[in-house]
Amino acid sequence: MSEPALIVIDMQNSFLHPKGENYYASAGETVEPVRRLLDAARKGNRLIVHTLDRHRRGLIDFEQKRLPEHCLEGGFDAAYFEGFGPLTDNPREVEIVKRRYSAFFATDLGLMLRENGVETAIICGVKTNVCVRATSQDAFANGFRVVVPRQATNSNRANLQEASLEDIDRYLGHVVELDEALSQLAGDANG
């Protein structure tokens, strides 16, 4: 079996809380499916990576050339949405702070996954066409099997959601139903 890890992308107030600076209503559709994936990964003693989009106050950040200043460290928007983030008593849950779309870029994510025998990256969270897509592409480029549960990710633009999932499934990995990803995290299916 291909050892899976769960990579949870940007489940933060910025996207999920109605007062978040990047909030969009359909982001909330990911909350319950991602919680179910977290429960399954915890029960299966899987490595869980929680990513945060977080930027430094007062310093230039290249991403600002494309996006307005957002998710500033220490602020409400940069914090995890209620019920998300690593459990403090579980050493198999880690946090990766990222300053670009991909959780692999300029982080030790690939190294950590390889050192822990991970072969499959189950990637969920927000937004499909930006951070989920970029992380999926870099997971593939780093030699990991990519799995994206359809119901556990979304975008504020339906056309980009569908196009991104189609690209991921065709070129980078497998877009699956939530139950299949839950089964893989529980150890019920080969990866």
UniProtKB/TrEMBL annotation:
A GO term, aspect molecular function: hydrolase activity
Record keywords: Hydrolase
InterPro entries: Isochorismatase-like_dom, Isochorismatase-like_hydrls, Isochorismatase-like_sf
Keyword Glycoprotein attached: no
Residue ranges occupied by any Isochorismatase-like domain in the UniProt entry: 5-179
Hydrolase is among the record's keywords: yes
Entries under Pfam families matching the protein: Isochorismatase
SUPFAM superfamilies registered for this protein in UniProt: Isochorismatase-like hydrolases
PANTHER family linked to this entry: ISOCHORISMATASE-LIKE DOMAIN-CONTAINING PROTEIN, PEROXYUREIDOACRYLATE/UREIDOACRYLATE AMIDOHYDROLASE-RELATED
Protein name per UniProt: Isochorismatase family protein
